[in-house]
Design a protein that fits this description.
Mean pLDDT: 95
Structural class: alpha/beta
Length: 321
């Protein structure tokens, strides 16, 4: 029988790719998702338990039923702008609900906990590429809620809680190369899927915020990492914890800075027109965010395979099409 791993938020964009990667590695992914933002049709590689991470009775029953010893947590709220207008929602979903979740998992003997964190914990970068030792000073409640839960994991582990790893994503992008699952947020705010939708005529056009940054083409630079590479890192993190590796936080990025203009140029090279307009910069948007992911490569053996822009964009476009 395959060893089961509980995946909270496994019906979401990244979570469903994690479930696929787990299944390919020989595990049984058990998805825990309340389907508020997740999609039932994205649960394809194991059973679905329709519940919230705060539903402790369901958590205990599920962990016991499937003999779960490892958990991957991707549940929570993710929109930066909404976190500013509704901070209590973010502290509730990303922090408060997780405390009872952790307690229930410890009581059931769970040994390993991998947490979906974010590069937003760094705030405005003081040096690029960003290493894990960079100062931690988020600029919004979303980033603070993620950083606060990282601290909860550290403190709880010292007091006897599960071993943990926090994976700090940069810009997740792309879709399954087989086309079963992809990025489907509502509303969609991320650059590459919105560019796909604009190219397909499903939105009037792409709005680009800022063309006067101090970069080579005036547009902001980000680090895009393929969602399948992110998914692979979660499997490696679980295996590292189960063999006794030291808890830690790791950056997950391609290490390549790609400007918005370069993303549009890639669409153009692929023969895809993206109607777009320029708008003023948004307050708080950094000029450049690029990861230093050497630690994940050295400690976890992570080797990104799909990092080039055309692979990311082609997979995203094919899924949206």
């Amino acid at each position: 029988m395959s060893e089961a791993v509980l995946v909270a938020g496994g019906a979401g964009y990244i979570g469903s790719h994690v479930c696929k990667a787990l299944a390919a590695a020989g595990y049984l992914p058990v998805t825990l998702d309340n389907l508020v933002t997740g999609r039932r049709d994205f649960v394809r590689w194991g059973p679905l338990v329709e519940a919230n991470v705060a539903d402790t009775a369901v958590i205990r029953q599920t962990v016991t039923q499937h003999a779960i010893k490892a958990v991957i947590d991707l549940a929570g709220s993710i929109e930066v702008g909404e976190s500013v207008s509704n901070p209590l929602k973010y502290y509730d979903n990303n922090l408060v609900a997780k405390v009872s979740f952790l307690r229930a998992l410890q009581e059931c003997g769970v040994r390993a906990f991998v947490f979906s964190s974010t590069a937003a914990v760094y705030g405005e970068p003081v040096a690029v590429p960003i290493v894990e030792a960079h100062p931690l000073l988020p600029k919004n409640p979303y980033g603070w809620s993620k950083l606060a839960f990282e601290q909860v994991l550290r403190d709880f582990h010292v007091a006897g809680g599960p071993a943990w790893m926090a994976l700090r994503y940069f810009n997740a992008a792309g879709a399954s190369l087989e086309g079963e699952i992809g990025e489907a947020h509502d509303p969609e705010t991320h650059l590459i899927p919105r560019a796909c939708l604009a190219s397909l005529g499903r939105i009037p056009g792409l709005e680009i915020f800022g063309n006067d940054y101090p970069t080579k083409d005036g547009t902001a630079v980000r680090d895009y990492v393929h969602v399948m590479d992110l998914a692979a890192a979660h499997v490696l993190a679980i295996e590292a914890l189960m063999r006794g590796e030291t808890p830690a936080a790791y950056n997950l990025g391609s290490g390549i800075g790609t400007s918005v203009g370069e993303v549009l140029n890639t669409f153009s090279r692929m023969g895809l027109a993206v109607p777009h307009t320029f708008k003023p910069r948004r307050a708080g948007d950094p000029v450049r965010l690029v990861a230093d992911s050497r630690a994940a490569k050295e400690k976890l053996g992570w080797k990104p395979r799909y990092g080039d822009s055309e692979t990311i964009i082609r997979s995203a476009y094919n899924w949206h099409k």
